Backbone:
């Protein structure tokens, strides 16, 4: 079965960096676009970034553009989110999520699998 | 701010029909998706492409999309349906979520 497991969260000071990982199993990881979605405490869902199945294309939310970098290692079935210049407003649970169709980023597609999330707290 | 607007909360009595709306500019021209998130859990899709139910989602969940408003309807609401619900659409290559609606089953 499809499994997504995030790790790397923790407490970090403003202005510092942190790298999150998402380990994927149960499907052919290299076939799928992968996303990061976050949720601040008590707040709603916010899409963060997406990377194409081969890593050649990436897109970011305006709120993180220039500070966050999404990447992947298809040989190890790993998705990453490198976060730098962190701000207190980046405090959130970060989820990795897969869309339902392989090889495409399509407006008729949906998030069919989510990890359990990893909490990032940005605080001095 | 959110490009998709949902009511913050909706209350319903057990067995009654709950309706949650999601408004956005030209939403009629996009597909709407709905996710359920129970406390402490990850989101789960309950409606995709406006009206379709994934396997395993009860028939009491249904969706529609007309004009600038998508609607999630839960018929015969049960206590287990109490959760946060989020609508979502795509804007170019980015996903946009509504602010979420807390459904309370009184």
Residues:
């Amino acid at each position: 079965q499809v499994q997504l497991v995030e790790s790397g969260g923790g407490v970090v000071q403003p202005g510092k960096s942190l790298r999150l990982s998402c380990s994927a199993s149960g499907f052919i990881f290299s076939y799928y676009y992968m996303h990061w979605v976050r949720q601040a405490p008590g707040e709603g869902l916010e899409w963060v970034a997406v990377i194409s199945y081969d890593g050649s294309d990436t897109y970011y939310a305006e709120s993180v553009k220039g500070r966050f970098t999404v990447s992947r290692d298809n040989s190890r079935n790993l998705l990453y989110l490198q976060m730098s210049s962190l701000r207190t407003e980046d405090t959130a649970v970060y989820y990795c999520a897969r869309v339902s169709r392989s090889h495409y980023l399509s407006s008729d597609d949906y998030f069919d699998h989510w990890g359990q999330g990893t909490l990032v707290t940005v605080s001095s | 701010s959110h490009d998709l607007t949902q009511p913050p909360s909706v209350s319903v009595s057990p067995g009654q029909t709950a309706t949650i709306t999601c408004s956005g500019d030209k939403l009629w021209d996009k597909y709407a998706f709905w996710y359920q998130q129970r406390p402490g859990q990850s989101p789960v899709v309950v409606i995709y492409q406006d009206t379709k139910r994934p396997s395993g989602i009860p028939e009491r969940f249904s969706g529609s999309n007309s004009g600038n408003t998508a609607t999630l309807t839960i018929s015969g609401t049960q206590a287990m349906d109490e959760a946060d619900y989020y609508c979502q659409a795509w804007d170019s290559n980015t996903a946009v979520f509504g602010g979420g609606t807390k459904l309370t089953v009184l």
Observations:
- The mean pLDDT of chain A is 96.
- The interface with chain B takes residues 35, 37, 44-47, 50, 59, 61, 95, 100, 105-112, 114-117 of chain A (CB under 8 Å).
